[in-house]
Amino acid sequence: MKKDRIEAIAELLDKRGKLTLTQLDDFFPDVSQMTLRRDLLQLEQAGRIIRVRGGAMSVKEVQKVSSEPYAKKTAMHTDAKIKIAQKAAGLIEENCSLFIDGGTTAMYLAKEMRDIDIHVFTNGLAVAIELAQKKNLDVTMLGGQVMKDNLSTASPVARSYFENTNFELAIISASAFTPENGFSCGSMIEADLLKMARKKSKSMYMMLDSSKIGKIMPHTFARLDDIDVLITDDDFPADLKESFAKRNIIVM
Amino acid sequence: MKKDRIEAIAELLDKRGKLTLTQLDDFFPDVSQMTLRRDLLQLEQAGRIIRVRGGAMSVKEVQKVSSEPYAKKTAMHTDAKIKIAQKAAGLIEENCSLFIDGGTTAMYLAKEMRDIDIHVFTNGLAVAIELAQKKNLDVTMLGGQVMKDNLSTASPVARSYFENTNFELAIISASAFTPENGFSCGSMIEADLLKMARKKSKSMYMMLDSSKIGKIMPHTFARLDDIDVLITDDDFPADLKESFAKRNIIVM
DNA sequence: AACTTTGTGTTATAATTTTACATGAAATTT
DNA sequence: AAATTTCATGTAAAATTATAACACAAAGTT
């Protein structure tokens, strides 16, 4: 059905921000590129997307463009991150209380999450805005000084927020990982926040795309034993997978 | 000069919204299309424009196209709001500490603010993101439950943030105003937050576009005497202006 | 049943963009 | 001051992408 397909394209674009025709073609293998082009033309005329050379982008994405440093980061390893986010989204159950960090992977997770009755805490501005779109979901933003490079907040004050909150689950992404140094990130106050989140939640899922393996950032916020589930992509090394499994950590 | 030309292109695009390469070539006959292409590429990487097939368009133009729920609100009385925001931005001095609320007018204020050394507190997600773009400026986001309709936070917990902070100036916009009921808004916790902001700051400037005069919202957060400066548009009624002046409130 | 409309695919053609290389001017180093 | 590097620019070929034109079939309409 044409209408459904156009709707699906619009949604896809909202999620992914930007798509090439080739990528679109992969999603809709049963129609020709020409048809997809015509769909894009219609969407453009409806003001919902903007056609750019090679494909199209969502209007929402364009608004984000103004935040250049963040947008740049967003563009990296997109596919892997989305896949990881999808896996993570599938693990979230209704009626739970949840912490999500403010990274770009978390941002994709926010996009992929179903609009169900959950309460989410986050320190990511972009994550909060994304989640605010969903009607049934409740969002609480953690305050603090805004870090310009990744649009998330962190500050010693933010800790006070945690004092009276508890969540069943924290889903967090790391900037770097080695077996020796654990999961690390670049900012001390962020590391502090994430440690705190770990303490306050019953269990912790870690999202880690394989490009981050072997990298070390200054501040470790979690070690292997701290996490319950590791969500990663297909390129995750088999030997590492084993050492996780040995510690009863589910790798998926 | 390359820099000047790029600047000129950016301005042109902001004015005309969209231009084809051929049109651009007419404006700049002394350089080749290839050079113009490269200029556009740079502008795109800087996040100022979007290249589309045939030429480019300004980001601002794209934003006009969109009509999401939040964007819809943003689009109302845009011109008046921008003018008010510009006036307000002119009043902000370097090296000060400032509170801005999370409304749409505040959002425009954030856009208009110069990139100088200031510390800004805000409860607006969109405001915080906008301000995060500026290098010299420091932003602190007030946490709390996210209100989906206006993308700002408010919660009793947010009060605790204020306890150890002080600012010279609070620039706030109201959803409604009558002389009898003062400045009011729709949410009780938001009203509470704004009251708190008023207490904590040395002075308070109110942004009020004239469309809001005569309207009443459930929760009053400030009365006439609470404010020091009223920033409004040209349609502001003369008689009201007088009654402000009587109380030594500057109307501009 | 004949006719239109609509959605689609195919191919050829056109337009646009990118790439690669060349040039000269300006800035920097030696 | 000469040599070298860097930078902005131009040119033209190559690659990519978009449009146009036509064909065809299915679903409505008259």
Describe the structure.
The structure is a homodimer of 252-residue chains. With 252 residues, chain A is an alpha/beta fold. Chain A has 2 domains: 2-65, Winged helix-like DNA-binding domain superfamily/Winged helix DNA-binding domain (Arc Repressor Mutant, subunit A, Orthogonal Bundle); 71-251, 3-Layer(aba) Sandwich (Rossmann fold), CATH 3.40.50.1360. Chain A contains 11 helices and 15 strands. Chain A has helices spanning 2-16, 21-27, 33-45, 59-65, 68-74, 78-90, 104-112, 125-132, 158-162, 188-200, 238-246; strands spanning 18-20, 49-52, 55-58, 97-100, 119-122, 138-141, 144-147, 152-154, 167-173, 176-178, 182-185, 201-207, 219-222, 229-231, 250-251. In chain A, the strands form 4 sheets. In chain A, strands 6-5-4-9-12-14-15 form a 7-stranded parallel beta sheet, with helices on both faces. A 3-stranded antiparallel beta sheet of chain A has the order 1-3-2. Chain A has a 3-stranded antiparallel beta sheet with strand order 10-11-13. In chain A, strand 5, helix 8 (125-132) and strand 6 (138-141) form a beta-alpha-beta unit. Chain A starts with a helix and ends with a strand. Chain A binds chain B through residues 47, 50-53, 57, 59-60, 62-63, 65-68, 70-71, 125-126, 128-129, 131-133, 135, 138-146, 148, 151, 153, 155, 157-158, 160-161, 164, and chain B through 45-47, 50-53, 57, 59, 62-63, 65-68, 125-126, 128-129, 131-133, 135, 138-146, 148, 151, 153, 155, 157-158, 160-161, 164. The structure holds a DNA duplex (30 and 30 nucleotides).
